[in-house]
Amino acid sequence: MSFQDNQRKAAAYLERFVRDGVKNQIAGEAVDAVSGETFETISPIDLKPLGKVARGKAEDIDRAAKAAKAAFPAWAAMNGDKRKALLNKVADAIVARADEIALVECMDTGQAYRFMSKAALRGAENFRFFADQAPQARDGRALRAPDQLNFTTRTPIGPVGIITPWNTPFMLSTWKIAPALAAGCTVVHKPAELSPLTARLLVEIAEKAGLPNGVWNLVNGLGEEAGKALTEHPAIKAIGFVGESGTGSLIMAQGARTLKRLHFELGGKNPVVVFADADLERAADAAVFMIYSLNGERCTSSSRLLVEESVYDAFTEKVAEKAARIKIGHPLDPDTVIGPLIHPVHLEKVLSYFDIARAEGATIATGGKKADIAGGGCYVEPTLFTGADQSMRISREEIFGPVLTAISFKDEAEALRIANDVDYGLTAYVWTSDVTRALRFTENVEAGMIWVNSENIRHLPAPFGGVKNSGVGRDGGDWSFDFYMETKNVAIATAPHNIPKLGG
Ligand code: NAD
């Protein structure tokens, strides 16, 4: 599709948001916030408003949580095959509107169409994957003991809250909500205030596909208002959260009084470790892809490049050349790789690291400034810092933009020490042709997910999650069901064993 086609279609898809705003969805009804208040969402492409969004607060969360609680018994009791069929229908409906989802997501987040066109399809895949697991979700294990048979079953935990961030909001919402529904939980979703549009499309799609009213409720609003109220609501049994590590700490404290079960997917400062014996051309392509795709606004981005000393200069030169050739531009242009960052405040944060890098004594090998693109949006050049060391802020803090910090190492021990010397531990990428070293390194590197000789390629049954400040718990495959379900054990006596006789 051409840039012009995309622009024309996007304008048509966005019209409804300008006209009607972005409403909440509670018990099957599109509603304004109880207070009638709204906030504006803007496009990072030109900072123009896209629509007025319902500003939900505690009273809206209360209505949504009550709706989710009322819908829970019937949804939990529905047999797994029926739930599977329904969730597969949701997946079909997502595919049918994939283009609308992609174009709206581009306009709301600034992410490039070339990546977002696939995000909607990946969202559908998330639904299909968990739909297919629904019939087995309750299955447990048999554990035999002398004169006793134990067996376990799982039951859905109850209504759950899902809180999502602004980066790739559609894909992430499906990733969190699909397993909750497949497990038999009902949902209250609080999307990020900076990119709320596709969450609205998603709940509409699901209800049109036949999801019963109240099974999935949507409340827009600010984190400290709607988000906080959701984490404190007594009817909500668990919170699946994706966002910043600091927000995770707040949620843990907010959920303490009602003993919430929590699952956190948080920030990262992920190393890509390149040894001299690696296939350096492939390693460079992967490193470039993992930091400059999705505007670098990606929790699993490889934002630290650790390169063995002997190949450091040649390798970083190669990366700098590739980065300098990347096309920055309007997200609806099919050739664009890097679009505008989500919001002027985030842009300022990312730009501030260019001054920090200079002050810390690193070299800006490429990029390092705002990009001047028509529309006046939040564009920044793909950037590479070289000559950095692990003590610098550019090596320790999550910048969350197309900004890569390159550090050299002498040997494997030093590479490991640098890789682990951060508060985060989400992913790591290791490039080497030595299989023994790869095994040793993956054993010792502190990360929840590690790819060897590869960029991030997700396999949905595999666990997803981080260690240290990058997360609590795992998603994916059966791990998701363990979070959204309670395990119950039943012990049956299989022989007339001796029962202690107290009192005669
Ligand atoms: P954020 O933590 O600011 O916001 C995330 C969500 O939490 C939003 O919906 C927000 O409204 C809500 N929120 C804020 N304060 C809250 C509170 N007190 N109580 C309840 N909810 C509250 O994160 P962000 O800036 O939207 O997203 C970027 C961050 O997300 C980055 O750190 C990134 O690494 C992380 N992320 C992690 C993963 C992962 O899988 N590990 C995936 C994507 C993004």
Summarize the structure.
The chain has 504 residues and is α/β, with parallel strands linked by helices. It has 16 helices and 20 strands.
Radius of gyration, rounded? 24 Å
Major β-sheet annotation: 7 strands, mixed
Distance between the termini: 85 Å
Strand order of the biggest β-sheet: 14-15-16-13-12-17-18
Low-confidence stretches: none
Ligand catalogue: nicotinamide-adenine-dinucleotide
CATH class of the largest domain: Alpha Beta
Which architecture of the largest domain does the CATH hierarchy give at level 2? 3-Layer(aba) Sandwich
Structural class: alpha/beta
So, the CATH homologous superfamily of the largest domain?
A: Aldehyde Dehydrogenase, Chain A, domain 1
Total individual domains: 2
What sort of overall outline do the alpha carbons produce when their principal axes are compared? globular
Number of strands: 20
Range of helix content: 40-55%
Describe the protein.
This protein is an alpha/beta fold and 504 residues long. It folds into two domains: 283 residues, Aldehyde Dehydrogenase, Chain A, domain 1 (3-Layer(aba) Sandwich); 182 residues, 3-Layer(aba) Sandwich (Aldehyde Dehydrogenase, Chain A, domain 2). Strands 14-15-16-13-12-17-18 form a seven-stranded mixed sheet, with helices on both faces. A six-stranded mixed sheet has the order 9-8-7-10-11-19, sandwiched between helices. Strands 5-6-20 form a three-stranded antiparallel sheet. Helix 5 packs parallel to helix 6. The site of nicotinamide-adenine-dinucleotide has 31 residues, from helix 8 and helix 9. Nicotinamide-adenine-dinucleotide binds next to helix 8 and helix 9.
